Amino acid sequence: VAYSYVDNVAGSDAAFEATGRTMEELFVSAWNATLNTMIENPESIDTVSLRSIRITAREADLLLHDFLQKLIFFKDATRELLMVKRVRLIHTRNRYKLRARLMGEPIDTSRHNMIVDIKAVTLYRLAVVACTSGWRATVVLDV
Amino acid sequence: MRVPVRIYATEKLLRAMDEGVFDQISNVAKLPGIVDYAFCMPDGHWGYGFPIGGTAAFDTDAGVISPGGIGFDINCGMRLMRTSLQFEEIKEHIHTLIDNLFKRIPSGVGGQGNIRISRDDFRELLESGSSWCIRAGYGNTGDLNRTEERGCMSGADSSKVSDTAIERGYKQVGTLGSGNHYLEIQVLRPEHVFDSETAETFGLSIPNQVVVMFHCGSRGFGHQVASDYVRLLLEKMNSRYRLDIEDRELVCAPFQSSDGQDYFSAMKCAVNMAFANRQVIAHRVREVFSDVFHRSPEDLGMEQVYDVSHNTAKIETHLYNGVSRSMLVHRKGATRCLGPGGFDLPSEYNSTGQPVIIGGSMETGSYLLVGTERACETFYTTAHGSGRAMSRRNAKKRFDGKKIQREMLHRGIYVRTSSYSGLAEEAGAAYKNIEDVIDTTVRAGISRKIARFVPVGNVKG
Question: Is B215 a catalytic residue?
Answer without folding.
Answer: no
